[in-house]
Amino acid sequence: MGPFDWLPHAPLERLQLDWLKGVELAVLRLDRIDPLISGNKWFKLTEHLAQAQQAGASGVISLGGAYSNHLHALAAAGKRFGFPTVGLLRGHPQDTPTILDLKAFGMQLHWLGYGGYRARHAADFWLPWREQYPALHPVPEGGGAMPGAIGCAVLVEQARAQLAALGWADYDAWWLAAGTGTTLAGLALAEAGAHPVFGALAVPDDHGVAQNVQAIVQGGYELLDASRGGFAKVDPLLLAFIEDTQRQCGLPLEPLYTGKALLALKQQVEAGRFTPGTRLIFVHTGGLQGLRGFTP
Q1: Largest CA distance in the chain
Q2: Is residue 267 part of a domain?
Q3: Residue 22: HSE in the Cβ half-sphere, 13 Å Cα cutoff
Q4: Which residues pair with residue 173 across a beta bridge?
Q5: Contacts of the segment 193-199: beta carbons below 8 A, 24+ positions apart
Q6: Are residues 216 and 263 located together in one domain of the fold?
Q7: Number of domains in the chain
Q8: pLDDT single digits (tens) 245-284
Q9: Among 127, 153, 178, 220, which is disulfide-ready with 186 (CB 3.0 to 4.6 Å)?
Q10: Are residues 270 and 182 in the same domain?
Q11: Residue 211: how many other CB atoms lie within 10 Å
């Protein structure tokens, strides 16, 4: 496998929104690091890819859904850096825009159905796949677990290096969407209690985010429900908020993660959780390619 020393730089930008009421907000634009390998996905992959290289693997096998941002970034990285990728897919064969990209990037796909995909946490899940692809390194769903969190820890350093350009000497907390909790765990690891990390849960409790985070880091974070009734649940208020945000400040959001997270922050500001003068960093975790699933 090729060298993976590419470490893109995420710009930190001030956001001006009418509902902030004196709270200062900056956004770490992971959506702007690369047109294809976008968002937090590359950062979650870096340590996994390093482990694959150390193990002498020729490529990577991982899993996700038909709109998976993780598989999209992994397949694009495989094409760019010249290593084979295999994707294990939830559900039955379909050609979403994401799936068409995975095929174009050269990823080998296997559809597991829904029952087969639910078995992904079983102790023997990887055995047949390791037999079929002995040269490939398995990476968990979403690029999670401790290696994924370690890869995301560098985001704290990237943000701190840009504070002076905003006129900030420091900040008070982080705010971001939590889908698996891996990025949140990486920030909490790097902060080591210096600044709290707030995770807006974009998925229901039964997705196991709290357990995922607890397995990586103890303390320094808080999880809040922002799922709005379930994973991939979209409602008129959320869609109107996303449209209004883009009109106000030009920030593109999608309704699965970043839109839900920023709307949850608005509700917390309106409830008085953060007082005027509080400085928050919102992490835009990318995922904009998934918007194509919501285009009429």
Answers
A1: 57
A2: yes
A3: 8
A4: 280
A5: 193/219, 193/220, 195/171, 196/220, 196/221, 196/222, 197/173, 197/221, 197/222, 198/173, 198/174, 198/222, 198/224, 199/223, 199/224
A6: yes
A7: 2
A8: 999 999 999 999 999 999 999 999 999 999 999 999 999 9
A9: 153
A10: yes
A11: 9
CATH of residue 76's domain is 3.40.50.1100
φ, ψ for residue 286 (rounded to 5)?
A: 85, -135
Residue matched to tokens 């997270």: 261
Among 164, 211, 203, which residue's Cα sits nearest to residue 185? 211
Going by DSSP bridges, is the β-strand pair 24-29/12-15 parallel, antiparallel, or unpaired? antiparallel
User: Which residues sit opposite 199 in a β-bridge?
Assistant: 176, 223
Both tokens of residue 202? 């974009």
- The strand order across the sheet containing 279-284 reads 12-15, 24-29, 279-284, 173-178, 197-201, 221-225
> pLDDT per residue over 146-191, tens digit each?
999 999 999 999 999 999 999 999 999 999 999 999 999 999 999 9
pLDDT tens across 10-65, in order? 999 999 999 999 999 999 999 999 988 989 999 999 999 999 999 999 999 999 99
Reported pTM: 0.94
Q: Print the domain residue range for 113.
A: 41-143
